[in-house]
Description:
Elements lengths: L7 H7 L6 E5 L5 E5 L7 E8 L5 E8 L6 E6 L9 H7 E6 L1 E3 L5 E3 L9 E3 L3 H6 L16 E7 L2
Antiparallel strand pairs: 1-2, 1-10, 2-3, 3-4, 4-5, 5-6, 7-8, 7-9, 9-10
Amino acid sequence: xxxxxxxxxxxxxxxxxxxxxxxxxxxxxxxxxxxxxxxxxxxxxxxxxxxxxxxxxxxxxxxxxxxxxxxxxxxxxxxxxxxxxxxxxxxxxxxxxxxxxxxxxxxxxxxxxxxxxxxxxxxxxxxxxxxxxxxxxxxxxxxxxxxxxxxxxxx
Length: 155
């Protein structure tokens, strides 16, 4: 059986933990920088989505109970401190399950910890952001694709 040979870039990314991973979409409309999640009983992953014109969306992932799924949300200009459900809903631009895929195309779920997946999938991201308060003349106009590839690892 032949052993796959990794390029230097692939080998460097192979051991990147998900909390330090950097992703980009196919059209270079958005990038994702993961960061270590704060000590929280519910939030397993934290990240920032960077769009054009300096627009940044705050992202978080919480695993659901019962049928476990990594449920993600992207928020824009949420108020600080105690917020009501209505305030949180108003600043949430996208929400859904975050999927991962390996180099062979096998789809799974975003891991809580461990090695960063090669690909992330945010279903219906573009259409959701198109109808958001951050889209348009005062925000960003280039919509990201739903699929993001691993581009790097933060130090």
